[in-house]
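The instructor's notes for this session suggest beginning with a concrete chain rather than abstract definitions. Hand out the sequence below and ask the class to guess, before any prediction is shown, which regions might be ordered.
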Amino acid sequence: MVPDDTLSADETETASADSRPVDAPSPDAGRTASNGFLAPGDDAPADLGDVLIYGLVGGIAGSVLSFVPFATVLGGAVAGYLCGGRSADALKTGAVAGVVMTLPFAAAVAFLLFFLGIAGAPAEFGVVALFVIGLAAAYTLGSGIVGGYLGRYLRGKL
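After discussion, reveal the predicted structure:
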């Protein structure tokens, strides 16, 4: 379909007065009007403090819900939902939540490796354990990022 390019008299005056096309959104459109899904102000960039705080909250929620399948996605979704902002902010918040959810696992494995090292376990076991920590961190971080994006999407729908 081709859009109708004809302008009424009011639209012509508005377009010439603003010196921008009629279809172009105003610079403060995200702060004053809703696009139908997000609340007014949701498209404004989030502060770094908000990203860190909501990422921490989402990471704690994901850690507490660790017995639930896909808890890492749920933790990222909580963080992305609470933070709002733009898509990039939701991804950053989900990444912070993923890092926070990785910390208890990494601490438990480091604690285990410490005691196995005292007991005389071979060094290859430590290399394998570090590889497992890396895979788990990549999974947790990635699913936290996906959850952050899904949380922002749900914020726009609910």
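Then share the key points. Residues 123-157 form the longest helix (35 residues). DSSP finds six helices and no strands in the chain.
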